[in-house]
Amino acid sequence: MALSDLVAKILDEAKKEVVKIEAETADRIEKMESENEQKIADRQLEIEKNTEEKKNSMLKKVKTLGSMQSRNMVLQTKQDAIEATLDKVIDNIVNLPDAEYEAIIAALFEKSGKVEGAVFQPAKGKENQTIAAMKKAKMAYKQGASLEIKGGFVLVSDTMEIDNSIESIIKSELRKEIELEISKALF
Description:
This protein has 2 domains: 3-95 and 176-186, no CATH class; 98-173, hypothetical protein PF0899 fold. It contains 6 helices and 4 strands. It has helices at 3-48, 52-94, 98-112, 127-136, 166-173, 175-186, and strands spanning 119-122, 142-143, 152-156, 161-165. Helix 2 (52-94) packs antiparallel against helix 5. The radius of gyration is 25 Å and the shape is elongated.
């Protein structure tokens, strides 16, 4: 499975979440606006008792606060949606059929190149698929202890460590590219 296929799969998953996320966001915004309108109405009664200058100052503060709270909640909702989508993508990759998963892992071995004296540490529960992928990539490393990572492997030598865990690749290396595409699709 090529990187472009992976990105396409990620975008496809993100598009499936669009309707759900938009509905949730609209509901939250509507609720926040309703609450803010009530707060504004309550404040206006209080302000009318004060001088004209205080009235204008208080109203401006309330609107600004409501607007900031609304923006913060929308931003947090978007960030949560992106994070949830990335987690689903990682889970989908890790749970691919063995042949597809092994193809991705083989590509990661090939991308890493030959590292002299390195030991590979596979994801716990994915040892056999990782060994098969290493053989497909025509690499030969000794197997180290399995790690509590979500798919992939880590190559460790005396001089370097290459983190090819699926989670690390998606959330660190590809996040900016993927996050922008998911944001466009979701929002």
